UniProtKB/TrEMBL annotation:
Keyword set, alphabetical order: Endoplasmic reticulum
Extent of the signal sequence: none
GO cellular component terms listed in the entry, alphabetical order: endoplasmic reticulum lumen
Organism: Emiliania huxleyi (strain CCMP1516)
InterPro entries: ERp29, ERp29_C, ERp29_C_sf, ERp29_N, Thioredoxin-like_sf
Top-level taxon: Eukaryota
This protein's name: Endoplasmic reticulum resident protein 29 C-terminal domain-containing protein
Domain Endoplasmic reticulum resident protein 29 C-terminal: start-end pairs: 141-227
Pfam families (UniProt xref): ERp29, ERp29_N
One GO process term, biological-process aspect: protein secretion
Keyword Nucleotidyltransferase: no
Amino acid sequence: MSIVSLLLAPTLGYVDRGILKLDNTTFDKIVDGSRAVIVRFDKEYAYGDEHDAWKDFAKKVGESSASLLSCDVGVSEYGDKDNADIAERFSIKTDDFPQYRLWLKGSGSDKSPVVYSGEKKSDAFLRFVQEKAGVWIGLPGQVKELDAIAKKFGTAADKTGLVAEAKALGMSDEAAKYYLKVMDKAAADGGFISKETARLQKMIDDGSVKPAKKEQFGRRLNVLSSFA
Ligand SMILES: *[C@@H]1O[C@H](CO)[C@@H](O)[C@H](O)[C@H]1NC(C)=O
């Protein structure tokens, strides 16, 4: 190792934490249905905000106890075009990079994945996998015990019973209060969750809303996603 690479080594880091890089010798062995796997298809050397969001997401998943792997299929643009075969197999075009696909537990690489079409932001990825793969990572504003009750809410016949169950937990911090408020409203109005989600999203997208408020709305969106 040269002096230069010795000096550079610690700052470059060994890996992107939480990200498993796949190629055509490992893809089918990892995406085999034994656990949920989310795969990003992108250029081999991705960079920029979307890349940073993905790295932040993968690190959070990696450090959580969620049974979910975050993987990269990095397609090289030149030479051997490594991994272009895998992207092609799932009909993913280079022009559409980055693309994200989620294989649920129980569906291996021979099954169709869930296509991600949301915002390329860390919290949006987290909400997606929690919702679709049913794993728990814990987003800002979310409370595990209340989240478990919220998940049953949509299909429950006895919603007031669930509200009572949630209240009986005796939690009273800001996050818990919001869950209880949402449960009360959703019990009375079946369309509340989708209306409130749309309303908050609109305010987050509004340039005139203050950053601190946007953060609060983001935490609320995280809570609402538990009810989806
Ligand atoms: C697997 O990837 C290698 C390296 O890019 C490539 O040479 C090979 O043709 C690929 N195999 C298949 C079956 O596509």
